[in-house]
Amino acid sequence: MLVGIHYNHYGIFSEFLVKYEQILDFNEIDHIRMEASQADFWDIIPKLDLFRYHWGHNDAYKERAETILPIIEKHYGIPVLPNQATCWHYDDKIKQYYLLKKYGFPLVESDVFWEKKPALEWAKNAIYPQIFKLKRGAGSNSVIKVNKDTMAIKLINKMFGSGMQIGKIPSYNSLRSVSYTHLRAHETPEHLVCRLLLEKKKKKQQHQKFHKPQQHIT
């Protein structure tokens, strides 16, 4: 048996993958380090019994994975880890939201817009504050609190215009990022996710009267 293990980046082999090699060594399974840019990459693929790919969060991982993994698995017939059945929704909050909603998981009420006009109409009538999120990113690095409709409209125009970078939501005037750490990949303009804050529920609760039940001592 021969397992091909793809580098994290060109020339970089992480400690995680080294541990994976140690597991293979313990089980006396042969393995080889590979990189999609090497000249003989596709010559080695047919000789493999398993192809291992460590998929990170940046755009380089995504573009490479979505290009080579389906070909290796579906057309070369080589088992891939992760396979297409399990990685198609990886690092994509829109796909994950639709999937979880289908199976009835408890979710924060969300609105996904694929066109600009309905997004702008929503922004004018929404209850603020809201949470704006890009579909990708980890550690809350592509999240921003939107306090009013003018802020939402700026974000919508940006998303359906030149687009936005993961981890780098622009600060227009009073726009402040909740948490973003570093620059990542470009986000496609048509993807826009507006998440409702828990404050929305709190506002509704302010209009309700709650009476504390009286205690009767006997």
Protein topology:
Elements (H helix, E strand, L loop, with lengths): L1 E5 L8 H12 L3 E5 L6 H4 L5 E3 L6 H17 L4 E2 L2 H4 L5 H10 L7 E4 L2 H10 L4 E4 L9 E4 L2 H11 L4 E2 L10 E4 L6 E2 L4 E5 L1 H9 L12
Parallel strand pairs: 1-2, 1-3, 3-4
Antiparallel strand pairs: 5-11, 6-7, 6-11, 7-9, 8-10
Helix pairs in contact: 6-7
Please indicate the percent range of residues in DSSP E strands (runs of 2 or more).
15-25%
Give the SSE order as H and E letters.
EHEHEHEHHEHEEHEEEEH
What is the radius of gyration computed over CA atoms, rounded to a whole number of angstroms? 23 Å
The parts where pLDDT drops under 50 for at least 5 residues are 174-203, 207-218
Helix/sheet category: alpha/beta
What form results from the Cα inertia axes?
A: elongated
Tell me the domain tally: 2
Question: What fraction, in percent, of the residue positions are helical?
Answer: 25-40%
Q: List the total number of helices.
A: 8
Q: Average pLDDT value?
A: 79
Task: Trace the largest sheet across and list its strands.
Answer: 5-11-6-7-9
How far the N terminus sits from the C terminus, by CA atoms, comes to 78 Å
